[in-house]
Amino acid sequence: MEILAVFLVGLCCVLQSNGIEVEASENNGCRNFQPHTVMLQEKQSYRTSFHFQPPRNWLNDPNGPMWYRGVYHLFYQYNPYGALFGDFMIWAHSVSYDLINWIHLNHALCPTEPYDINSCWSGSATILPGKGPVILYTGIDANQCQVQNMAMPKNLSDPFLEEWIKFAQNPIMTPPDGVEGNNFRDPTTAWLSHDGKWNVIIGSWNNNQGMAILYQSEDFFNWTKYQDPLYSTERTGMWECPDFYPVSVNSTYGVDTSVLNAGVKHVMKASFNSHDYYMIGTYVPEMEKYIPDNDFTGTGMDLRYDHGKFYASKTFFDSVKNRRILWGWVNESDSIEDDMDKGWSGLQSIPRRIWLDRSGKQLVQWPIEEINKLHGKKVTFLDKKIDSESIFEVQGITAAQS
């Protein structure tokens, strides 16, 4: 059998090796932690080359991705002490100019106060018009209760936003009546509604219903729970890491989180049962209700971002290129022994641009265009005959480049 063989092989860039490694110093209580020192590749088995990873240790949920003053920011759940999920989780922080090559900074949020002393869990970032970014995050307080907190940059003129200050009046939201203290977490990016109020949803579980509890604020500091959830259902488990955002009906371009008009539909996403599920529907702000085109069924028919390892995802609107970008946590599901032996666990998916399909019934995803930067070395073979069951060695590249 004769085959016309043309091999195009991409030379991938090792994300961390192209970045600047900064040792962790005292910052919001991040003291005496293992520094961000890169271990040699051969000492950390099976590290990836394409996906985002910290230099070492455990990583899970992406938090607060955003673009600010020419820089992309990615915060993420991180255990500074080891390769397993821990009881002292923090917000690590990395920045990039192209979403491919990353600079690892000092940690952004660490447990220091009664309202987050047992961990700084997941949350989101919202950019307030004329005021800059604000972080909302879940703290595990001294009583092991989940509460919502706020933090602001110390220096808005710093494009890297290296220092964050926690709000003096934290917590700003506590579990409402009827909601257990361990079922109240992961605030979304906030959106500005027609009445000038800020809105945010918190993932929860109550009365055998997974739900998005809605909170509103006129100043972003004082928050009041709305009388009803924005959406709830009996067909899921506890809602983790909810996401809520508009998508254009007539364009593949993304839109800002606060856009609300006849030209958009709204996506409601929740993480439960080890997967990320979403619905497409209509947001009715006058009633503060979300009406899905098709409700969750609790079956394999429900829409999912990904059918592989993909969880706790977060989107953000990239105003520079008018696109919405999706990140997701990828857990390899190695054994505890393997993770400890590797010295790391978890990575982030390759960032994807996301938009509404022409049918309006599902989302479309595609790796961001910057991924093309990873294509470096090309090897071409023309008119090469390959016999059945034969072996042909491609010389000039390594396995890590394919």
TrEMBL record:
Pfam families: Glyco_hydro_32N. One of its GO terms (biological process) is carbohydrate metabolic process. Keywords: Glycosidase, Hydrolase, Signal. InterPro entries: Fructan_Metab_Enzymes (IPR050551), Glyco_hydro_32 (IPR001362), Glyco_hydro_32_AS (IPR018053), Glyco_hydro_32_N (IPR013148), Glyco_hydro_beta-prop_sf (IPR023296). GO terms for molecular function: beta-fructofuranosidase activity. Belongs to the glycosyl hydrolase 32 family. This is Beta-fructofuranosidase. It comes from Populus alba x Populus x berolinensis.
